[in-house]
Amino acid sequence: MRIAFLVNAIETERPSYTTTSLALAALARGHEVLYITPSDFILGPDDALMIRAAHLGDARPKKSETLLRALIAPEQQRALVNVEEVDVLFLRNDPSLDADTRPWAAHAGANFGRLAAERGTIVVNDPCGLALAQDKLYFQDFPAIVRPTTLISKDIEEIRAFIDDHSDGVIIKPLQGSGGKNVFRVGSSTESNLNQIIDAVGEVGYLIAQCYLPKASEGDTRLFLMNGRPLQRGDVYAAFRRVPAKGDVRSNIHARGTPKRAHVTKEMLAIAETLRPKLVEDGMFLVGLDIVGDKLLEINVFTPGGLQTIRELYDVDFCEDILESLENKIATRKTYQGALNNRILSTH
Description:
By secondary structure, the chain is an alpha+beta fold. It contains 12 helices and 19 strands. The protein folds into 3 domains: 2-124, Rossmann fold; 149-212, ATP-grasp fold, A domain (Dna Ligase, domain 1); 215-316, D-amino Acid Aminotransferase, Chain A, domain 1. It has helices spanning 18-28, 64-72, 95-98, 103-106, 108-118, 127-131, 156-164, 194-202, 266-281, 307-314, 319-336, 342-347; strands at 2-6, 32-36, 41-43, 49-55, 78-82, 88-91, 122-124, 150-153, 170-174, 184-186, 207-211, 220-226, 229-230, 232-233, 236-237, 239-243, 258-260, 286-292, 295-300.
């Protein structure tokens, strides 16, 4: 299998990233690994879609640091590859990281991914599904029973009224963003810095005001779904708790949250089952759910991370399961000789 990973920039990839772990697992299984960025697509006059890819040649690094060094080494030569010769294109870029400084790059993965899928490459997550999820508004497409009460607005008076309706306070965050950036807890509409918070968050677009869940002080649980169902091996789920740092409302690992073992409850599994039909319909192969109690805080469909953390906590490498699933998709595509569309293959 030849698998290409799309990332924001190869230079900013880290050993701890889930993408790095997936690449190492692919190499260990004998597959060829390519890395590309949003600027590496070329649609030629002959309608051939090419990618300019960083590759490792015959090298089979076993360590994350060795892999990443090889990809950015001065002698690294980019190969021009026809996308039809790529079995799987794994879209692992975060559009929110490019939205301000490189807006052209934010949607390149979904746009060119769609063209790749039309040419027979399996693209995960499905690019047409990802096009629906360019910001957190996608979250509102799921049943209200699993979501905290939410307001999306840029009107400060509407936001003040919403805060007044929730005695436990609210969380304010940007409609587009990731990693816990610009996330604030507001306890009262009379807080002196509310205007500054709204100005800071609203500068990049619409704001989300979400009722605060008291259980969030104990952290949230990241639960991975694959092909629409919880990813698990035996009795171990691909899940971990993220406990926020003292005095912080954010549990993101990037925001100093601490990973712990998770207890996956029947309420969490019920949320996953409620989401499954739409995630399958949208071709969402690998997804990370952030859950507090019986409520879903976020759905991560672009670059859900944490598989290396799970491996450290449980000594289980779920990258193996993910690669095996991709291998099965290639076999299914071959059996059906192109009769199945990419959305079906993505979650088959």
